[in-house]
Amino acid sequence: MKLSAYAALGATALSVTLAGVAVTSVAQAQDHKIESVAQAKPLPSVDMEAVVKAAQIDPRRPDNKLTPGAKASVLLVEQALRDRHLLDKKWVDGYFGTTTTAAYTKFQQSLGYKGLSANGLPGQASLAKLGAGRFKVTHVIAPGPRVKIGKFVVNTRTQKMLNEAQRLLHRKLTLDQGSYNPGGDPTSAGTHDGGGVVDINVKGMNAATRTSVARALRRVGFAAWVRSPQQGNWPWHIHATAINDTDLSVQAQHQIGDYYLGQNGLANRRPDDGPKVSPIRTWEEYLRAR
Ligand SMILES: [Zn+2]
Asked: Where are the bilayer-spanning segments (predicted)?
């Protein structure tokens, strides 16, 4: 578009020159206009993957450390929240802690969002609205539409992650519980209320197999733990929460933060008892590294 418009302008300038009147000023004015468009500063970028990761980890940190790679993007989001009078300027610091999460929830509510859409985790739609005219959003995460696996509901991002884990394991996995299941299982403490969370059935698996399934789930981007009847009022199962799923319930977001911080994702916040994978990767990071 720009090139052809410029070519057309050149042709016009030329024909006017031939006519011989006040040509230069018109052509120069137009040239100047084109130059300023070309020199206009592009909008800065917000890396959505980095911001969402910080929004899960930072509220759980015992210290003020920043999530690596997230500072510049988090600052842009915080500045936009500040300019909307949702966040005091003293919290514009690159740390997506509980105050920033609360401010982001207020922003989502100001858009008329409710429930999971106002979970404090920047989603694709709200982030685009916050950034209008201020920043562009890169590394967009999409949970995708809801689909059924047997009788359980998950989103397509979770479905793809499970398919990849099954491929790595050469084993079919069966679910005990899906996502978007508010109040469906009181022992789950709200973690299954939103997207990205499944329970894997471990019937017939020995301890080594359970561990290898948890490891494969971790490799593709889940925070996954083998849960035993000693830990709660539940049978043996594997609980898996998809890192960076923007539909995560608040409780599930906390499990992701705890996973990064080396904890078990339970209310007692004991040390992680699952198979370590290093580095911890999100699904999108796994796909890029593959
Ligand atoms: Zn569970």
From this structure: none
Q: 221 C-alpha to center of ligand 1: Å?
A: 16
22-42 average pLDDT score: 53
User: If one looks up domain 45-138 in CATH, what number appears?
Assistant: 1.10.101
Q: Indicate if the pLDDT at residue 39 is higher than 90.
A: no
**pLDDT of 218-267, one tens digit each?**
999 999 999 999 999 999 999 999 999 999 999 999 999 999 999 999 99
- Give residue limits of the domains in the chain: 3-40, 45-138, 146-289
Cα(35) to centroid(ligand 1), Å: 58
Cα(122) to centroid of ligand 1, in Å? 23
